[in-house]
Amino acid sequence: MITSITGGENQIIIKWAKNPGSDIAGYLLYRTQDKKHANDLRRMELIKANDTDAYTVEVTEPLPQKEFEFADNTVLPRQPYYYGLVAVGLDDKGKQLRSRMSAAKTGQAYDLTPPEPPQWDEEGSGWVYVDDDGTVYEWDADLTGASNPRPAIRLIWLEDVRVDSVLIARRSELSSMSTAVANWIAGSPTDGEGQRYFLDQNVVEGRIYTFSAVSKSKSGLTSATDSTIVIGVS
């Protein structure tokens, strides 16, 4: 059975007691974020350090003095996770014999490390056109049939899973002051994994703009530095 669950920075440590006198080959650890599924391993996720591992923790000699433990490093901070444990033995023919899953226990991680600022996609960011329907056209696209296309700047960035929102500020070549154009937004997803984008439609064609951005994590921590990108003349 699970004896303790301890939240760490971006990880949860699960410990369980040894099975005295039992011939255990390994343990399987299941988790879910849905409390309703916490007692049904069929609706829970099996977690292992490596996908090719036979068990979450394999029982090998020497045995731990007190307890087995596993550090789950694939969790999001400040969100509850429910864990259940299954012990696996082997019969004389090597067939697995599984115990019932233990009673589920819950824990959550914390986060004390500020996130990195957004990582700009300099190749994908740049001038585009946006029409009245919100359709985005590449700068060199055929605009025949487009409804009142207007110049805009599309900003694309990459962020990690800890980021909740970004603040984007814009400064033109004609000004020394920056103005917030996206006030802690999540951004819209692109086809690229982990990528987000924002369209700034309050720009003037032919000007050079500098954009800067900072990230805020789901724990409310803000990146210590910003990142900048310069969008030149179209």
Quick structural gist:
This protein has 234 residues and is an all-beta fold. It contains no helices and 19 strands. It has strands spanning 2-8, 11-17, 24-32, 45-47, 57-58, 67-72, 81-90, 96-98, 105-107, 119-120, 126-130, 136-138, 150-158, 163-172, 179-185, 188-189, 195-200, 209-217, 227-231.
| Number of E-state strands | 19
| CATH level-four homologous superfamily name of the largest domain | Immunoglobulins
If you consult CATH, what is the topology of the largest domain?
Immunoglobulin-like
Helical run tally: 0
Global morphology: elongated
Specify the CATH class of the largest domain. Mainly Beta
How far the N terminus sits from the C terminus, by CA atoms, comes to 64 Å
Order of helices and strands: EEEEEEEEEEEEEEEEEEE
Helix content: under 10%
Mean pLDDT: 92
- Poorly predicted segments: none
The gyration radius over C-alpha positions equals: 25 Å
Structural class: mainly beta
What's the number of domains? 2
User: Beta-sheet strand percentage?
Assistant: over 45%
CATH architecture of the largest domain: Sandwich
Main sheet? Answer: 6 strands, antiparallel
Any chance you could write out the topology, listing elements then pairs?
Blueprint: E1 2-8, E2 11-17, E3 24-32, E4 45-47, E5 57-58, E6 67-72, E7 81-90, E8 96-98, E9 105-107, E10 119-120, E11 126-130, E12 136-138, E13 150-158, E14 163-172, E15 179-185, E16 188-189, E17 195-200, E18 209-217, E19 227-231
Antiparallel strand pairs: 1-2, 2-6, 3-4, 3-5, 3-7, 7-8, 7-9, 10-13, 11-12, 11-13, 13-17, 14-15, 14-18, 16-17, 18-19
